[in-house]
Amino acid sequence: MTSPSRDSASSSADPIDVALAQLHAAVREQLRGEQLTDRLTRLANNEALSEWLEEKVESGEDFWIAFVEIDRFKSVNDEFGYESANEFLRRLATRLSAASRDYFAAGVLAFRAHGDEFYLAGPVTSVSSQEELAAKLEHVRSDIAQIRVAVENVSRPLRCTVSIGWLLSADSRATNDGCTQPAVRRQLEIAVSEAKHQRDTVLRFTPEMHRPSHRDARGDCSDCLAKFTVMIPLGGERSGSLFCPNCGAPIERPRSVAP
Amino acid sequence: MLATGVVSFGLGMVAASSAQAENEARRASFRQQLESEFESSGRALLDLTIGRTRANAPFWKVTLKVGAGQLRTVRVELPVGADPYGHDSRMTLLQNSSLAA
User: Fold this and answer.
1) So what's the ipTM on this one?
2) A232: domain range?
3) What does the pLDDT look like over A162-196, one tens digit per residue?
4) List of residues 6+ apart from B17 with CB closer than 8 A
5) Which residues 1-60 of chain A have a CB within 8 Å of chain B?
6) Cβ contacts (< 8 Å) between A111 and chain B: which residues?
């Protein structure tokens, strides 16, 4: 019996090489999965959220996203201790995960980005209407308000409410900043901070709530006489940070920049 | 489950497929090409953010360092339906961020 020559082995894939390649790929994916997972709750983490948003913006697919933030979580931590607070976070994660499966069509994900900041997000096809989405997020808020964590040596259980700010990608696109990953996060911050005024509330972001971070400015350079338009951070014209994009000369007089 | 390219997150599921790796590679390659092209004209690419306009057209928001401590941010809009990572988009981006608008 003769063993196959090296030439004949290289002409067709070696089963051992194939198996090793598959194993490497599996390990890589497992590691990548861990990188995208929050250790406390096992939900997808902030990096996974960034990845999800980036893909949605790249593809132009319509989506919705809700930012779920616990009301007065710091005082809960102070009063009940971090172990009980962590248990609350785990239960909240379980509720959000259940909601992503039970209340919506396929494609909805739950994330824990930081501390007490959670997100639910999905394609617009996961709900039949904006009204239905708002109603479902009300259910989520109400579900979370039902969570009770018994705490040793404390007479009453730990419970929390959440404020939820949400948006549709179409509304994000309708703002001056457009729909970018940082803009979506800022817009959700605006909505949730409005919701937090009342606490235990669900609030939708609308373009009217938008606070632009930049604005277009036109100017004439006194050095090279170029006419230009640049995006400047709001307040940037007062800080002396404007420069001619053609020759780099500083634009010293704010009046040379008009909206 | 790994064979299907999906990694379980216990409570949630996130796609961690080869398609995702391809996306990351495509982004990195696009950025690298731009970086070297800007660098050859004496500018440094500091930030590159993709976005969508009201009409759902893609745009790039580019922040460049154009001189000593001088930053410039421009928004370059692409046609509706354009591939933001395509050759035409890169050319449009380079041209528009070179112009004084």
Assistant:
1) 0.80
2) 214-258
3) 999 999 999 999 999 999 999 999 999 999 999 99
4) A29, B5, B6
5) 25-26, 29-30, 32-33, 36-37, 41-44, 48, 51-52, 54-55, 57-58, 60
6) 12
